[in-house]
Amino acid sequence: MATIPMRRLTSAALIACGLLIGACTRSASSAPTGTPGSGTTSPLTGQQATMEAVRSALLTQTAAAVQGGGPGISTATPSVGTPVATSAALPSATRTLPPIPTLVVPASYTLHEGEFPYCLARRFNRNPDDILAINGMSNDTIVSPGQTLSIPTSGTFPGPRALLTHPATYTVAGGDTIYSVGCRYGDADPIAIAAANGLSSPYTLTPGTTIQIP
Fold it and tell me: In 3D, which of 59, 63, 70, 72 has the Cα closest to residue 2?
């Protein structure tokens, strides 16, 4: 055990204290008797011998504890606790985005670059002929950005509204806007695209970047 050296040092220290106390007591009360030449040492010489013996014992046991010598002395490094394993790939901080807005069919809509009546018909689930009729237009009518069109309050789009499958990702090309990208997918709401990508007005798209299409 790692505590054996400390126990031995403590025991040795206690023995040393006892011997020193005993030696001091004897020298203070009466000197040991003996005749010259009989080999009996003086009180001062006895104390020095006792202290030297204790010091030698302490040094020997300390060296054994440090070097790992001596029977029954463990040289194993005591455990200081197991480190908690950490993952090499920590989850990165996620961006908090505003909720995807619910598509609301407006009574009127102002066209942006890249939008046209059939695009609005797919997006708002209205019959394109009804949009043309309510605005006094035909298939040959040319529309332009900034033009406001009325949106019928009823009717449905005749056929599949989506032109491309989504949700998906899309790589922005030069000239793209959230409105033109929405029309590319048919029924994708441009404002929902902006929300899914954390874009704020004027919703600028950078060519070459990848955006999420909800």
Answer: 72
